[in-house]
Amino acid sequence: MEKKRLEDMFSTDIDAYLKGIKRLDSKQSEEYIKLLELGKTMADKDFSKDSDKQKVFERVLRNINEQKGREDTLKKSNKTKSIVTKVASFALVCVLGFSLMQTSFAQGVVDKIVRTISLGHITILESEPSDIKSVPVPDKLKGKIFDKDGNPLEVLSTEHADEIYTVDGERIAYIDSDGDIVTKSEHEKARADECLIIKDPNQLNNYTCFDIKLPSYLPEGYKFTEAEFFKDENGVVENSKVVGLYFANEETGKFIYMQQRVAEEDAGYVTDAVKIEELKINGVDAVLYDDSNLDWEYNGVIYMLVGRGEIAKDELIKIAESIK
Amino acid sequence: MPKLALIDAQSKREIPELLDMEKEFTYIFETYYKKVFNFVYYRVNQYYTAEDLTSQIFEKVMIKINTYDETKSPFEVWLFAIARNTVNDYFRNLQSRKFLPIDSIKNLISKKKTPEDIVEIAETNDELLKALSILDERERSIVALKFGAGLKNVEISKVLGLTENNVGVILFRTMKKLKKELERMG
């Protein structure tokens, strides 16, 4: 009883505080008073003070006006509208984390768009190329990241973005959005926890609510190696809407990544690129961007082929065309 | 009461002139920006992401505003249900995409803020924010809805689909957990 009463009292006290009403904290335990103080501190935090409110306002205004225009056109042609979620743009470009990717969105995408191509749920923005090829290593990572010869990195550049190591010489898989280092082995472990890995290509369709289609053509030396499915809250994979596919060349260690996902509102994304090219894959509109990524949407599925700069453009197209 | 004003604004929207829409948006934005931003920030702890998600939330709110039914739920409940879904989608998307290997960093580079600036901002409020990371999604949502959005338990219960009583219990438990973690961190 007593416990329950405290919980109610806490909510009442906090609500009163939020409303600006001062209540006398009469003869409560020290623990309770401390909890209330913590609650008040949290209620007083105003992170929005340091945010760029004007920028957010303008961005929304621009987007809803655009959306309105698009909607009107769509209404005329009697189609349903699709709202694009922009979230995913972070992901494609991954991974130099918080120091870089947010700014890509904030600066790169919003400020200097050259043109936009939309394919159903996917939107690709062409932006002006950035002339900056390197950035100083953020404070948080100083002294923690090294090149392959063990020299501490002061600057991150496009050249060695792929190969950074910890002080112990362990390869870094990526830097997460908090700026924390995730090594290859940690990454593998996390992946094992969060993903179901299937290596038998014949079993892929047991886990998704759509048909996964593998390419019948792959560049020489490349083979399907595995598919990853993301586990739900209960740790199982059932009727999943997304799959990640890996095709690797065992000799060189290089690989191609592909994602297939159900095309629905949540799955849509916007991404940016310096160079975009429109083309057709088996008669369907597709976008090739930065010569290394090829996205298209077919029959309710979004296909995203990531050549990682290692696969020539015409090879990418051939792979894509072999997916039927 | 902001709620009344909004309904007022809505009933006048027989002919949705662009100007009206902008006015309405400005009103909603001014009224809720702080709450929405703080809610999002309590969930994601990053300024750029929080700004981006906040703008997405307002976008969705404005696009869906005609579907809002004041007889079904208070405006804030409706708005924060959208906010919560947007943040959850963000995490889900991030999860299903974060395994992409490093491609390149070209065009990821800020022209205005240096990475140091960003780190600096990101590290303010560090201790509390670190402590928050031990919470699960539900606990964190409650914290964000309570302290970021300033909602009452009854409103939180509607956004999250819990009972009001349950919200109070989880909130109190979460506060104890946070306090303990903060003490542990010293």
UniProtKB/TrEMBL annotation, chain A:
Sorted keywords for this record are: Membrane, Transmembrane, Transmembrane helix
The membrane spanning regions, by residue number, are 83-101
| Keyword Transmembrane helix recorded | yes
Protein's recorded name: DUF4367 domain-containing protein
Query: What PANTHER family does the annotation carry?
Result: SPORULATION PROTEIN YDCC
Domain DUF4367, by residue range, is 215-323
